[in-house]
Amino acid sequence: MTQKYYIKSISIEGFRGINNQGNPLIIDFQSDGVTSLFGENGKGKSSIFEAIIFSILGRIVRFDNYHGDIKDKKTIKNIFHSGAGNIKIDFIDGDSNIVKIDIDIDSNGVRTFNTCSVTNPEKFLESLSSDLNFLDYNSFEKIILQSSEDTGKLFSNLVGFGNFIHIKEKFDKISRTQNINTDFGKATKENSLRDNNKRISDIKLEIIRRINEIGNSTSNYDENKLLNDVKKFLKEQYSLKPKKIDASIDFDKLIKLKIGEKYEENVEELNRQQELLSQLLLLQSELKKFSPQVILTLKRKLKTAHNHLSSTDDLILGKLFDIAIQSYIITETDKNACVLCDTKELGNSTNTFYDQLTHKVENYKKFKEKYSLFLNEFYQQVNTFKVLDFENKFLIEEDRFFSMILKKEGFFEKDFFEKNNIKETISKYKIIISTKIKKIKKTIKELKTFIPPKVSDLVETNNVYKFVTHSIIDIKKLIDENNYNTKYLAELENWIRFINEIKEDYEKSYNVLMDEIASMIDSDTKLFFKEIMGNVDITPKLKKENKGQRVNILLEKFHNNTTDIKAASILSESYRNALSLSIYFAAALKSKNPGNFIVVDDITSSFDSGHQLYLVDLIKTKIGLNPKNKKGKQIILLTHDGLLKKVLNENNSLKYWKNYNLNSNKDYVSLKPFKSEDLKLIIQNKILSNEYVGSDFRMYYEFVLLEIIEKLNLEVPFTLINSNDNKMVGKLSSAIFDIIELKRTARKIQRISRLPNKSDFKLSTQLLSNNLSHWAGGREVSLSTAVLNKIIDDIDNFKKFFQYNCTCPAKNVGWVYYKSLSSFKQNGCNCSI
Amino acid sequence: MLEIGEVTLKILIMEFDKNKDEAKNIQILKSEIKKIKNPYSKILLDALDESNSPDEFRVSIKEKIHNYIDSKSQK
After folding, report:
1. Mean pLDDT within A453-475
2. DSSP of A220-286, one letter per residue?
3. DSSP code of A635?
4. Nearest CA to CA, how far is B8 from chain A (Å)?
5. I want to staple A66 with a disulfide (CB 3.0 to 4.6 A). Which of A71, A278, A458, A825 is the partner?
6. Is the Cβ of B50 closer than 8 Å to some Cβ of chain A?
7. Would you call B7 and A494 a contact, using CB atoms and an 8 Å cutoff?
């Protein structure tokens, strides 16, 4: 089983907003649970998020989509920090082995590795996780707003089956009919088979026609009989007995020797003219087949190719970037910089330059694919109809239309067929051939008058057998070519069936797997959504389409509506976000990535206080690792939501939860566990410097009350602790009073007299409420420093009802909370109270 | 079993497991392909191992399959 890794700790110096020159910010994470980091705006929270991402992925993910004119990689290293920035990140596996990674960041934002405890830290980090281990507001809102195809891909990636998609894409690529045609020349070979068979049949017919012309009546092509006839002719006329009839028999030489010099010139001319006539007759019959229908098909294919381009610029750009883009490393390179000349800040607000470029290259590739089909067809037709043969033999160079256009560099333009009248050119060629035939026939007739009929007949017969001999050799070559192509195509068919079977089977199996995963994610999504949004009358549904990888995000119930509707279109922003988070968490929990952690930044701010608390509760119970949720993930939660402060502080007391409060000034970011004393100090400083303290008093009192509940383990309902409204002080003090009264009545309290009674509560709350009401309403009231400090003292005096002053030599810790209502003294304390 | 020319292709259903990680499932895929006793399965596995992108895979398959078929067709 693959080892799982958790983030143990991180040390950050000189990175993004964290300068900490010589005094790195060190955070020990709860590797078997949840670590929450609370930081108000500007306290370094996002810098920590990015430090984790940067150390693992080697880049600032959010920069990927930044326009060039707002991105500056020189800001990755803290600009005030001298020397290299540094991040040390430690991972711990399930067997408690620790992997230490030490990274420097230079002023250009480039990551280099110092001595690490693994040989290849880059590979280790790469294998650990993906973008999907990190979630911030920008990335999770996309989950619900993307296409169903991308949702399917996201699911595969989220659950760690991203490579399955790549394999599917590989199989798709090689099994596509068009690619098989291009890669193995399937269509060309099939056409060649068809053309060769046609050619063989034409040659056979021509042989029969010519044999009949010399008076050897025959209606069938019989190769053996023909070879015997040739042998017989050679023996009778030239006393020649060749073992084999092949190309070495020189019929021209033989006839020349036979008839002597007297008729040599005329016979040679007659031969030449007859040969020419024969060729022209063949060309005439071929050219007749170059029909307007064939031209129309070619025209349509060229147009289809050009339809992928919107302008000639697309052709030039696509061609230019087709190769360049292959070496364009998307993760490392500026998406708005030119890959060729490194010009920066290209692209626009909607699309990066890379996206635009990719689109152009994709279109160019489609054009090239279709254009290649057109060109093959064009060549094939020109060759089949022997147009080039005609041009080469009978036309001067400047009149050779087809030879010229095929020699031209570049692509055929979209309006090639409009600009060039092919039909008219072919007609012109036909007229030329017809005229030439007439002329040659006349010449032959005239030549024959100079040669005795016996000689002329012998010349004709000699020519026919020469033609028969050469044609039989041609037919054999064509048959050999056909045999090769037939075997090739049959074997290719085996491959196609093989790969299609594998692909189909893979897709079926992949579908089964993805169906299972989608249904698992669906059930968790439903559960998580209900938990975040409370018991709303809305039920989401993830529906994978039967074929392919598309996953639709729907609502199977929306109040009274029970027909499936698309979630993104109907849900309000907070509901969409809740659904996105539910899907993300449901899928992330199924992830098989070795990096068994999720780092989330600012995912709570789009919710109101109640839903924020539900979300934190969901993370605590069902998403984060804890003794009861062993399949959970290590969670690192960064938030600036003030409303979550107290619940995060509460959770800090859990064994599987660590909470830190971030403090910072211009130079240093530090961590402090959150205590009411910290808030008191902040308020006192504000009072000293005459700063507005606002509702800080109420918050301080609230914290004290919460601290009393926590320290004395008072059984106050959890929902009360987690709720948040302006009457919290009153509600909490009533709850504490009720618990004390209940335990008093049940005689469960040790030394009742030390705890506040009804009048103490009344006095304290009335006194404080009087002052606090000014702040609760947000109204600033002019009060003297002494009065303000008195409010703090009143709160502290109330706190002291639940504390004792420990002065015993054993502990001597000063004012400390009672251990509980039934047992006051802290462990190890010898005070007499 | 499906007879294709000289080769026999076993019709298989790859049983991927949702509880196994991707690497394990890719091993399942490869071992299923390996079980098919014909020359194509080896070519396919080699090409899968050698190539990263679909384009690289296509180039590799094109060369390997063409060479194999060409040598068989020459006979």
Report:
1. 91
2. S--HHHHHHHHHHHHHHHH----SS-STT--HHHHHHHHH-STTHHHHHHHHHHHHHHHHHHHHHHH
3. E
4. 9
5. A71
6. no
7. yes
Of A490, A492, A509, the CB nearest to B14: A509
Q: How confident is the model at residue A495 (pLDDT cuts 50, 70, 90)?
A: very high
3-state secondary structure of A616: helix
Closest CA to A417 of A301, A543, A565: A301
Chain A and chain B share a number of CB contacts under 8 A equal to 108
CA–CA distance, A676 with A800 (Å, rounded to integer): 14
Cα–Cα dist A29/A633, whole Å: 13
pLDDT digits 0-9 by tens, A364-376: 888 888 888 888 8
B38 — contact with chain A (CB < 8 Å)? yes
**Residues of A with Cβ-Cβ distance to B74 under 8 angstroms:** 484
Nearest to A502 among B33, B54, B68 (CB): B33
φ/ψ (deg, to 5) at A365: -65, -40
Mutate to test the interface with B, among A5, A170, A188, A506 (most CBs of B within 10 A): A170
Q: How confident is the model over A51-72, as a mean pLDDT?
A: 81
C-alpha distance from B42 to closest chain A C-alpha (Å): 12
Query: Cβ(B64)–Cβ(B43) under 8 Å?
Result: yes
User: If residue A639 lies in a helix (H) or strand (E), which one and from where to where?
Assistant: strand A634-639
- Tokens describing residue A86: 């540094």
How many residues make up chain A in this entry?
833
SS3 A620: helix
Q: Which of B35, B32, B16 is nearest to B24 (CA)?
A: B16
What does the alpha-carbon distance between residue A179 and residue A609 come to, in Å, rounded to a whole number? 56
Q: Which residues pair with A552 in a beta bridge?
A: A543
ipTM of the complex, rounded to two decimals: 0.87
Average pLDDT over residues A28-35: 95
Find, among A518, A524, A535, A516, the residue nearest to A621 by Cα: A524
Identify which of A825, A828, A795 has the alpha carbon closest to the alpha carbon of residue A811. Answer: A828
Structure tokens at A465: 């057998």
Amino acid identity for residue A520 in this structure: M
> What is the C-alpha to C-alpha distance for residues A564 and A566, in angstroms, rounded to an integer?
7
Q: Which residue has the tokens 């290649």?
A: A372
pLDDT at A692: 67
Q: Closest Cα to residue A570, out of A553, A583, A586?
A: A553
Q: Which of A16-20, A535-539, A703-707 has the highest mean pLDDT?
A: A16-20
Whether A494 sits inside 8 A of B44 (CB atoms) is no
Kindly list the residues from chain A whose CB atom is less than 8 angstroms away from the CB atom of residue B57: 170, 173-174
Give the max Cα distance, chain A.
152
Which whole-number Å values give the CA distances from A91 to A44, A62, A374, in the listed order? 22, 24, 57
Q: A494 to chain B nearest CA, in Å?
A: 6
Instruction: Inspect the interface and report whether the beta carbons of A513 and B70 lie closer than 8 Å.
Output: no
Cβ atoms of A559 and A538 closer than 8 Å: yes
Tokens of A629: 């949720």
Report CB contact under 8 Å: A163, B70: no
E strand or H helix at A96:
none
Please name the residues in contact with A321: beta carbons below 8 A apart, sequence gap of 6 or more: A339, A340, A357, A360, A361, A364
The string of pLDDT tens digits covering residues B26-61 is: 888 888 888 887 889 999 999 998 888 888 999 999
Q: Which residue of A has its CA nearest to B13?
A: A505
Q: How far is A330 from chain B (nearest CA, A)?
A: 14
C-alpha A412, offset from chain centre: 35
Cβ contact A506–B54 (<8 Å): no
Percent of chain A with pLDDT over 90: 29
A-chain residue closest to B41, CA distance = A498
Q: Comparing A12 with A764, which gets the higher pLDDT? A: A12
Query: What would the pLDDT profile of A580-604 be if each residue is shown by its tens digit?
Result: 999 999 988 887 788 999 999 988 8
Q: Does residue A542 sit in helix, strand or coil?
A: strand
Residue of B23, B33, B40 lying closest to A495 (CB–CB): B40
